[in-house]
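The data are quoted verbatim here:
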Amino acid sequence: MPDATTNAPAHRRYRFREYHVTSVVDSMALPAFEAVCVTGEDHGCGTTSGEVHTEDELTRWIAEHCAQTGHDFYQRTTRATLHAEPGAWQ
């Protein structure tokens, strides 16, 4: 219901309980790494490494792309499979 003096909505108070979750990296799943070349003034190069499964593979791809093109700025994405272990409501 709006406040009669200002015609603004009345303040409401909501309370939320927290649900605690612990996330654990799944040791049976391979991690995934990917890099995208973002070197460029108007727009990034956009060349991507594709998905690789070790940091060494990613570093090697970046080094090779840098050597071939002189490009030196990259965005890196790291992904891992997690298992959520629910905790208790608090």
